[in-house]
TrEMBL record:
Gene: argS
Family designation: Belongs to the class-I aminoacyl-tRNA synthetase family.
Gene Ontology MF terms in the entry: arginine-tRNA ligase activity; ATP binding
Residue ranges occupied by any DALR anticodon binding domain in the UniProt entry: 453-566
Pfam families named in the record: Arg_tRNA_synt_N (PF03485), DALR_1 (PF05746), tRNA-synt_1d (PF00750)
SUPFAM superfamilies: Anticodon-binding domain of a subclass of class I aminoacyl-tRNA synthetases, Arginyl-tRNA synthetase (ArgRS), N-terminal 'additional' domain, Nucleotidylyl transferase
Name assigned to this protein: Arginine--tRNA ligase
Keywords for this protein: Aminoacyl-tRNA synthetase, ATP-binding, Cytoplasm, Ligase, Nucleotide-binding, Protein biosynthesis
GO biological process terms held by the UniProt record: arginyl-tRNA aminoacylation
Provenance organism: Tepiditoga spiralis
Record's subcellular location: Cytoplasm
Short sequence motif named 'HIGH' region, residue ranges: 126-136
Superkingdom, natural source: Bacteria
Origin organism lineage: Bacteria, Thermotogati, Thermotogota, Thermotogae, Petrotogales
Length: 566
């Protein structure tokens, strides 16, 4: 298969050649091409002349002029203009745009990234015996999208569900299980029952603190390998996992590995030894702590308590050590809410002190709130994922029934639309800010929603059903302004994907897809498609086909399915 390059990179190569000739190879390295945000400035531009004015001790407009005058003839650039303090604005040739559109979906995209190292992404990671809440929804959905996007860019990505399957909750659960379990409830809805008895434990132990000692003893027994407690622990994991898997299946989420916290429990001792050996950790009132340089402003991290117990930090260090040895790691990505920022700062800083050479990224997100009062009686964070998905589906069913009461596939459709809407409602917002979940917008047929994108996709499928043509010829000729605008939007898909990848922000991709759908729909309303003939008909259908292709591919990168009919 041939690879198609990003347009930015194609232009970069052309300009680098000119610049190398003029100013030498070493001065061509800092040449970057950007999309413009206003078509009067061309399609792309570079600020090379401006950032090099000081280096060359020349007026930037003069540098720009020299570059423009020496540009070799090529098949890509129609014209260049010098603007403002020294921007070079680049206008693409129509034939180049046409060919680029034609190659969409046929050729693999070369994103020009070094993809030789693996990426491990740590996401979802719920805590065993507790229902998944909205925070885990965000981690799951954002993590899955980032995984898909990086895979598309070409990386080998390993998705790890770092389950919270080890910790003090198990001692308490074992005590509660033996005393207060309602068998019938447990069979019907195990996680709910485990949650109930856990709350029961908290209540009872507040009155009777002796229970805490008993729980501690049970935890110790579990950690020492007591057979009965291990069996119970295993059971808690199994019943929880089978509940989580129902949700993952429903949301088409797949992980490659499930190394939970328990996997690292016998690997933490070695980390402590290493930290001591390298004088990174020091004793502090019986405990072991790591102190950071003052200018880093990172508070002290506890890595071992005075009773010998390890901590969350210790476990994440053991986890990084494991990953860097097991994989050919290029980078580690963690997706959690923003309350864990300090935790990861500390862990990453210690990793650097240990001299472990891995890139690390904490991809954090804000809280999610609900705008329409549906869930307002309860705090956002305790909303169960299952309830949210069910609620979304009910709402979609109502809308679909109203639109088409006789639709036979209504249930299946409603499920796909609802899952898409919940994911998109999350992914389309800037992940670092607080998210307000607004049902009206989320389920709207004409706002920035997955419903609108799915609807646009289905509309194109219906055009093809009506067109009744088996094969389009590989012939595209752009004549109207609306066609050209749509074509210019289509060719920017790879760059939008890369922007989303580099910033770990799926909303940069949703913004692009929304823009594409809007551009398509204005093309659709201004341009006769099925009423046109010959090359016009062929060209317009090609634009339809490519739009549908990118909508489908783009939604797939967000973990959202399309429908042929809505
Ligand atoms: N289980 C944790 C929680 O629910 C998230 C774990 C994130 N991953 C990690 N390697 N620390 O808050």
């Amino acid at each position: 298969m041939i690879n198609i390059k990003l347009i930015e990179n194609i232009l970069q190569e052309i300009l680098v050649e000119t610049v190398s000739k003029l100013y030498g190879k070493e001065n061509a390295e800092k040449l970057f091409i950007q999309e413009t945000n206003n078509p009067t400035f061309g399609d792309y531009q570079t600020n090379y002349a401006m950032i090099n004015a000081k280096v060359f001790k020349k007026n930037p407009r003069l540098i720009a002029q020299e570059i423009v005058d020496n540009l070799e003839k090529n098949d890509v650039i129609e014209k260049v203009e010098i603007a403002g303090p020294g921007f070079i604005n680049i206008f693409l040739k129509k034939s180049f745009i046409e060919n680029y559109v034609l190659s969409t979906g046929k050729e693999k995209i070369d994103f020009n990234r070094d993809i030789s190292g693996d990426i491990v992404i740590d996401y979802s990671s719920p805590n065993i015996a507790k229902p998944m809440h909205i925070g885990h929804l965000r981690s799951t959905v954002i993590g899955d999208a980032i995984k898909r996007i990086y895979t598309f860019v070409g990386y080998n990505v390993i998705g790890d569900n770092h389950l919270g399957d080890w910790g003090t909750q198990f001692g308490k659960l074992i005590v509660a299980y033996e005393r207060w379990l309602d068998k019938e409830n447990y069979e019907k809805n195990p996680i709910n029952e485990l949650e109930r008895i856990y709350v029961e434990f908290e209540k009872k132990s507040a009155e009777n603190p002796e229970l805490l000692d008993i729980a501690r003893a049970e935890l110790k027994k579990l950690q020492d390998g007591d057979e009965k407690n291990r069996k119970l622990w295993k059971e808690f994991i199994d019943v929880s996992m089978s509940e989580y898997n129902k949700i993952y299946d429903r949301m088409y989420i797949k992980f490659d590995t499930y190394y939970g916290e328990s996997f690292y429990h016998d690997k933490m001792g070695k980390i402590i030894e290493l930290l001591k050996e390298k004088n990174i950790a020091e004793k502090d009132q019986g405990a072991l702590v790591v102190k950071f340089p003052e200018e880093s402003h990172i508070p002290v991290a506890l890595v071992q308590k005075s009773d010998g117990a390890f901590l969350y930090t210790t476990s994440d260090l053991a986890c990084i050590d494991f990953r860097r040895k097991k994989y050919n790691v290029d980078r580690l990505i963690y997706v959690t809410d923003d309350r864990q920022q300090l935790h990861f700062k500390q862990v990453f800083a210690i990793t650097d002190m240990l001299g472990w050479d891995v890139k690390k990224e904490h991809v954090y997100f804000g809280l999610m709130r609900f705008a329409d009062g549906v869930f307002s009686t309860r705090k956002g964070n305790v909303i169960k994922l299952q309830d949210l998905l069910d609620r979304a589906k009910e709402k979609v069913l109502d809308i679909l029934k109203e639109r088409n009461p006789n639709d036979e596939n209504i249930d299946e459709k409603a499920e796909i639309i609802a899952i898409g809407a919940v994911k998109y409602g999350d992914l389309s917002q800037n992940r670092t800010s607080e998210v307000i979940f607004d049902w009206n917008k989320t389920l709207s047929f004409n706002a920035n929603s997955s419903v609108y994108l799915q609807y646009t996709y289905a509309r194109i499928q219906s055009i093809f059903r009506k067109a009744n043509i088996d094969k389009l010829s590989n012939n595209l000729s752009l004549t109207t302004e609306a066609e050209e605008k749509l074509a210019k939007t289509l060719i920017k898909f790879p760059e939008a994907v890369l922007r989303a990848a580099d910033a770990y922000k799926p909303n940069l991709l949703t913004d692009y897809l929304f823009d594409l759908a809007q551009t398509f729909n204005s093309f659709y309303s201004s341009t006769p498609i099925l009423k046109s003939t010959d090359i016009e008909l062929n060209s317009r259908l090609i634009l339809c086909e490519k739009t549908a292709h990118i909508l489908k591919e783009g939604l797939n990168l967000l973990g959202i399915k399309v429908l042929n009919e809505m």
